[in-house]
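Hi team,

Below is the intake form for dTTP/UTP pyrophosphatase from Kaistella gelatinilytica. Please confirm the fields before the structure is written into the shared record.

FORM ID: S-0412
PROTEIN: dTTP/UTP pyrophosphatase
ORGANISM: Kaistella gelatinilytica
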Amino acid sequence: MKILLASNSPRRKELLENLGFTFEVVSIDCEEIYPQNLAVEEVAEYLSELKANAFRDLEKDEILITADTIVALENEILGKPKDEAEAREMLRKLSGKTHQVYTGFTIRSLEKNISKTDVASVEIGDLTDTEIDFYIKNYKPFDKAGSYGVQEWLGMAKIKKIEGSYYTIMGFPTHLVYSVLKDFE
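The structure came back. Fields below:
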């Protein structure tokens, strides 16, 4: 089977490679809008399914993988920041608190369609304005939900506690993706 990863995320690409799969990266043009009445824990999976549905019809030998990650603090979704000011605001909100990271994924072939969500809780220590400015200036987290990457400086220096999979926080719950993909073969 030919695996197609529909993601612009270099982290998802790296993680799928590290799982030992050979695949091709493909693009999907899809407006990522979800119903406002959707429960926070359902949004990431909804968006991954939306992306999968926006892809062209699959061939008999193809498997498509889509994914989406959201960060939620007290039921407020913190998406990708539009600019430095929004990134700064998000990081101030996360400072000294525990939030959840939900990553949903969809794996689809002509015969099967499986979607799952994994969640991890992340406790971030207090962030000073100087630390927030340093992080934004040096790591430019504008492509990351919640304005941070767990694998970067902020994750190393400020995450105090994680409950759940580190890779879910990176945007790809590798343990679940691996088990589902093995069933497709």
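SUMMARY LINE: The mean pLDDT is 96.

Thanks, M.
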